[in-house]
Design a protein that fits this description.
alpha+beta; Pnp Oxidase, Chain A; 5 helices; UCP028498
């Protein structure tokens, strides 16, 4: 169940980019990284363009918590691995729909197996 407020979902979904800052083991935030974000129902998702090797994604593994900012909304979040094939198929469609204007050279890697394996659901905390 999502704890996002409707206006937060709308604002974040409408933002082209999201700034994500994973929480380090010592409790401090890493430097924010700008990435893409998509919505599926009442949930928000991000993927690592470079898969599990990305610096920001590796940072999410330390505490599975962090902070995001997009569309004028800032929230502390939990990072939850998303592995459901059906959900990932919908997320693929969301990336295609939202970011198609950037072209296949940017969108296709977000749909490739390495990025799909690095899909995270953002849960407010």
């Amino acid at each position: 169940m999502s704890d996002w407020k409707a206006d937060e979902l709308t604002a974040i979904e409408g933002a082209d980019e999201l700034r994500i800052a994973p929480l380090r083991r010592n409790g401090t935030l890493r430097e924010p990284t700008t990435i893409w974000v998509v919505r599926d129902g009442d949930d928000l998702y991000v993927r690592s363009f470079k898969g599990a090797g990305s610096h920001w994604y590796r940072g999410t593994r330390a505490r599975h918590q962090g902070h995001i900012e997009a569309g004028g909304v800032g929230r502390d979040v939990r990072f939850v691995d998303e592995t459901d094939p059906g959900v990932n198929a919908r997320i693929d469609d969301a990336y295609r729909g939202k970011y198609q204007h950037y072209g296949a050279q940017y969108v296709d890697p977000m749909l490739a197996p390495p990025a799909r394996a690095a899909t995270l659901r953002l849960e407010p905390r």
